[in-house]
Amino acid sequence: MRVTRRMEETTMELLLHEGLLDKNGAKQATARAQDLSETPPEAAINLGLVSEKDVAGALCRHLSLPYLDATRYFVKREVFESLPLDLCETHHFVPMDKIGDLLIIAIAEVLPRRVIEEIETASGLKSRLYVSTLGSVTMAIRSLKEQLQLNKQKA
Question: Which helix (H) or strand (E) holds 121?
């Protein structure tokens, strides 16, 4: 995956750059994030300072990535088992599909370079990123966890 300069910025920096969040809002979100073990963008959304759609739009524009609704896809078992779901939850992304040597991933926040490298190492595939809302990614991960639980109960 080619990493652009914008990919090295944080989601909060992009929101500030876009004018979707001011410095006071960023400080509020950062404080809440530390108190409640959320990411700062997640805290900004939960505080009502910015909408999920605004965050997704900023990511699409600044990272030049297309949008994909993570809740509208059925993810094959081999795809979601290629990565630890706790990694997905921590960094707000979800694997969606595997096409050839590409792993399609929906992100709700900027992924640090080290996380992209970890994804590619763990899956053995090159990553292709799409943007989704935080709610969609969270719902998709929840659905994948439920599938895993059902599979464990059947075994």
Answer: helix 113-123
